[in-house]
Amino acid sequence: MAAGLHFVVWLPDGMWEDDVVAAAADHGVRVARVGPHRLTGPGRQGLILGYGDLTEDRIAEGVQALAAAVRTLNERPPGEPTRSPPTGITDR
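Predicted structure:
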């Protein structure tokens, strides 16, 4: 995101930025990873959500689509991780 209004959403343990970004894209929603914006190396997994140029209706649609994307990740069999943690990530 080049500029505008945005906020950060932190992901729960065991959920990885790359997985959520890919699942969101599959549901028509574009979100950005927090990772590339860190100054201190690996850390907590999160997303950057931009909303500056969206109407309230479009924001609501995007939130619903993002929730559906996350549900697809949560529907994996118990104990099956989403993916391996990104290189260098040892903890949140």
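Summary: Confidence is low (pLDDT under 50) at residues 87-92.
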